[in-house]
């Protein structure tokens, strides 16, 4: 019994019909997806395929009958195929069946083949289902990992951020300073405390105070560079870290510019809030060994000096400064 073309296409979508002269005279629909029909029909079978035995090239040998064949395309992607050749009805050539003979990975990766490209009984379909299932699981896992990573980044960002102002918090500042010390990067540390902030809260309420703090945060970001750090470390206290900037004259100019900007009245619900700022500065050049706690304390000492001089001032820390000379000044928690 001889199968017609429709039956061959259904049962063996990866088949090749070779005539008595060794030329390809028919191909299955799936094989046409691997190579254009015009490239195959009429071509000598052994001009299209390399015939191999267990992967070893045997050259232009006679096509074995009823034995397992190992083939690769001579041109294009060197896809490895397995099949078997058997005589057609009444010696009308050979039927080469390549079903079950292509790697599922290559079928999907190189040719985008799907289950519809194989016979319903072809075990390749089962493998395709497994590949698709694995791909779906991997994609879902990838998306889950991306969501988890995003949540982790968001949580870390929240842990390092002051929620009211959007500035970094003390934890973030400590992390940045530790990194700078490990890399031996010089920096300046500027401690700012707002003057008369308590009056704003007492007179206009905490909503006005929040508005002032947000305006101050925006101002400080505008007055610093992208490589610098601005952190809110207390109710109305801020620390600015200037990366690789230790020129004292330059730092004092920045401090004076910040103080001038802080004295601009801030409108709130038809009223105006008036504050100023006192600043203390220290730089790594002043220390043989960098100690963050000591630098923060020294910047705070310079800040107290600014408060002692009448507020709205900036001072660079010097070794001659002593808190004993400013004992009449309220401590940090009582600053106004």
Automatic annotation (TrEMBL):
Entry keyword set: Nucleotidyltransferase, Transferase
Known EC number: 2.7.7.65
Transmembrane segments: none
Enzyme type, top EC level: transferase
InterPro entries given in the database record: DGC-Regulatory_Protein (IPR052163), GGDEF_dom (IPR000160), HNOB_dom_associated_sf (IPR042463), Nucleotide_cyclase (IPR029787), Rev_trsase/Diguanyl_cyclase (IPR043128)
GO MF entry, a single one: diguanylate cyclase activity
Superkingdom of origin organism: Bacteria
Name of this chain's protein: Diguanylate cyclase DosC
């Amino acid at each position: 019994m001889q199968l017609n073309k429709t039956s061959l296409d259904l049962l063996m979508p990866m088949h090749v019909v070779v005539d008595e002269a060794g030329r390809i005279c028919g191909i299955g629909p799936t094989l046409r997806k691997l190579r254009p029909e015009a490239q195959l029909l009429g071509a000598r079978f052994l001009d299209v395929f390399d015939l191999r035995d267990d992967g070893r090239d045997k050259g232009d040998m006679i096509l074995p009958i009823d034995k397992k064949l190992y083939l690769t395309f001579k041109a294009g992607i060197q896809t490895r195929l397995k099949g078997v050749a058997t005589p057609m009805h009444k010696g009308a050539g050979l039927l080469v069946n390549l079903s079950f003979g292509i790697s599922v990975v290559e079928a999907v990766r190189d040719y985008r083949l799907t289950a519809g490209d194989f016979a319903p009984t072809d075990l390749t379909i089962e493998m395709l289902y497994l590949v698709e299932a694995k791909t779906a699981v991997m994609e879902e896992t990838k998306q889950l990992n991306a969501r988890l990573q995003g949540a982790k980044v968001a949580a870390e960002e929240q842990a390092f951020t002051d929620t009211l102002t959007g500035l970094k918090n003390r934890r973030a500042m400590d992390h940045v300073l530790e990194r700078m010390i490990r890399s031996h990067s010089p920096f300046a540390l500027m401690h700012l405390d707002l003057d008369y902030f308590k009056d704003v809260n007492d007179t206009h309420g905490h909503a006005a105070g929040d508005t002032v703090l947000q305006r101050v945060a925006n101002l400080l970001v505008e007055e610093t560079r992208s490589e610098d750090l601005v952190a809110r470390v207390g109710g109305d206290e801020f620390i600015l870290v200037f990366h690789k900037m230790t020129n004292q004259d330059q730092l004092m100019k920045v401090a004076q510019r910040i103080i001038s900007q802080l004295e601009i009245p801030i409108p709130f619900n038809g009223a105006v809030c008036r504050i100023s700022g006192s600043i203390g500065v220290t730089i790594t050049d002043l220390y043989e060994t960098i100690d963050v706690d000591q630098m923060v304390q020294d910047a705070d000492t310079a800040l107290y000096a600014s408060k002692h001089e009448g507020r709205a001032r900036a001072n660079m820390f010097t070794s001659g400064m002593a808190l004993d000379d400013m004992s009449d000044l309220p401590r940090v928690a009582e600053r106004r």
